[in-house]
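Co-fold these.
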Amino acid sequence: MTIPMHPPTKPSADPMKSLFEPDSIAVIGASATEGKSGYIVLKNLIDKGYRGRVYPINPNAVDILGYRAYPTILDVPDRVDLGFLLVPGQFVKETLIQCGRKGVKTAVIVSAGFAEVGEEGMKAQRELEDVIKKWGIRCIGPNTVGLINVERNLFGSFVSFSDWQDGPVAIGAQSGIFAGALAIELMEIKTQQFGICKSLSFGNMIDLDETDFLEYVWQDPACRIIAFYLERIKRPRAFLSLANKVRREKPIIVLKSGRTEYGAKASLSHTGSMALNDSLVDTAFRQYGIVRTDTLQEFLGVLKAFVFQPLPRGNRIGVITFTGASGVMASDEMFPLGLALADLKEPTVKRIKEIVPAWQPVRNPVDLWPAIGVGENRKVYEEPIHAILEDENVDVLLCILIGVPNSDVGDIGDIFARAMKAHPQKPIFLIIIGGRMKKRWIDELEGLNLPIYSDTSLALKAIRAMHWYLTIRGLDIPDPG
Amino acid sequence: MTIPMHPPTKPSADPMKSLFEPDSIAVIGASATEGKSGYIVLKNLIDKGYRGRVYPINPNAVDILGYRAYPTILDVPDRVDLGFLLVPGQFVKETLIQCGRKGVKTAVIVSAGFAEVGEEGMKAQRELEDVIKKWGIRCIGPNTVGLINVERNLFGSFVSFSDWQDGPVAIGAQSGIFAGALAIELMEIKTQQFGICKSLSFGNMIDLDETDFLEYVWQDPACRIIAFYLERIKRPRAFLSLANKVRREKPIIVLKSGRTEYGAKASLSHTGSMALNDSLVDTAFRQYGIVRTDTLQEFLGVLKAFVFQPLPRGNRIGVITFTGASGVMASDEMFPLGLALADLKEPTVKRIKEIVPAWQPVRNPVDLWPAIGVGENRKVYEEPIHAILEDENVDVLLCILIGVPNSDVGDIGDIFARAMKAHPQKPIFLIIIGGRMKKRWIDELEGLNLPIYSDTSLALKAIRAMHWYLTIRGLDIPDPG
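Predicted complex below.
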């Protein structure tokens, strides 16, 4: 029996490249049983058309999903770039050693039951660290869901995806949901969703970490916006120092949890993470231009804004509403965020005055309800939208629409498409309140890259995040010492 | 020509009754033109089956929608309880005088263009005040959208509704949206919506106000939960004093806006409201047991919780997740709200240990993902849900589900229906992350009165609001002096 042997090698110069762009993958723990992780990973690779070679590893199978299976990775006749480990926790060490002997450059350790489960697991995890160091394997995990690289059709996740929308966002997460359930939500419930080009689930990070990912996607032309879900930062100094460079070219948006006593405790049993002092994190993020978000909804809402709209040049918001109360609430929510109600210029006010009833004073927020049903509805929308977008005192247009039969206006998508075309540099944000007509309008607006929010305060937080990033993007800030 | 004349009368002893339960209504400014407010109000009354008599008033029509029209209200041969004024602003005064002469008890003044438009409008509004005093007419508005009383099939709103769900919530709002677009959203997008028995739009409140409404719905057996959208409080002392009684029987949930400098300015031009000092409002609400919410989403989310679930007896939350990150985020969000992660009892932990892999420690939040696909999925859900609901250390169960193919479990509605039946006193809150399966699950859970939130922080805010109300409901608090 001839087993190809490789001596321990030096760490690969570009480990993230061999993680995201491998020419061959061994799925160790591949399974022929539908529903098992070892089945889904293999099926994802095959069904999505991964362009490299795939080797199922399973000592009890000859063939899985039409691919020849091998008892161990050492039996694979060709070179293997990436090992995908799905074996039970107690077999991970041995399997990693086999990967080392085979000369595998990079390993994805999906198997769980390490630092996140306490002292015993921590010990086992340290043994893995010794193995990868000895054999020069770079690895992600343990306790990871995997990774996705759309460019290579590489869907290395044990969650199956029926759809996937490519796009400018790269997400690195200390959680599986961004390569799992949440990604499914983004992709399957298509309305108003943004695309993702790369997703990496970090797991317990015994080797490759958030800073490696940041470095990789910074250089990645497919990625325009970088997103992170983090419970800890493994190498804070390196991360911040790199972020300080990256922010000049690409925004970094982070959802950092484990920020309270409770969250930190929960994080310890999730990914074995020790908490950082949260106010230090906050200060550091502000210092180095990292956009911080506090909840999942805010994270997704801010990302959508960065994907869909240009950065606002200032903080002055022009508000169009079709209900006075919405204008009052939006004004309230703007104030503590440091956003300003734009002071509309005289010609703008004059143009809008021609649309609304004579008795109605025009000021920002502009309530157009009194004009509805009086003249031609389409004009009631178009004139004020264009007037406000043309106003030099306005940096962002926020429209709170009311989707009720009275306020129907034909194809609302057409109205906003024209507005965006005429004023490509001014971001527009939408809120729609209503029933069936709201649904119809959302359909009509689909594909315009016009972000619609269910919540004014979320839209305003997204605007604030974009404006803050613009103000800090170009600043010279000394690196962390 | 004999015009029935009534001398000026004393204010009706029970004006809210004649507003919500009139035996006859005159729609003054009724129109035969589809889409006009005067058309929609009349059509709503007829189509929804209002049980009283209806008189369209229009000097240029003989017949509108099959109902005989009269030139003025004075020409109506019968008694008229309620006058619904839709005439242009400049005709309101004269029309009100006619109502007075006719002996109309109550008027709904939809017409706008009064205090909300500045000095001129304020003057006109004061004239209306004189008229109603002189003629003893009680009124709501001007600048109101109208009112809804499901019991009487009285849909007095100029927004048309195709559906309406009756329910335990009465909403009084200084805005039209709760008898308009937002109500449409609640009613047409049926998933997980709560029903509304009464809705009143206050408008500029020259007469009847929030305190009158509170008094009326307090006594109303159809109403179990009282909700307000307010930009100001017209009679703060009376309102608080009454709220101090009402809270012992029914929760009062308020969305108060106009709380910042911006919001207050916008409110002035919306309903002519002068702002109250917001920190005083906050203190007073806390003092007298009024649940305050800050955004529209929070308002609706808190209302849904009160409608659907029993009050939690304490602040200790048991969390089930299928993703570690969600548990960490939920823990983080719980902490500043004063909610506690329940300390699971030993028997609970033991029961759950039998479900999860041996290596996994069990603590709150309980992550069930590692158990998925190992044994029977249904057991993975049911055992921990029942164990936690039975735990005396747990006051509320929060479940964060992951709707992906791996985690499918057949009819999830059945699982939760059983859990709710076995533990009717413990509130359950749900979050679902996922794509098509999430949609299917939401359908399966429909009708269970199990609140599903898109956002963990919103669910937690609702739990906090309910728990806070429980703690303050029975306290003896001295009335405002």
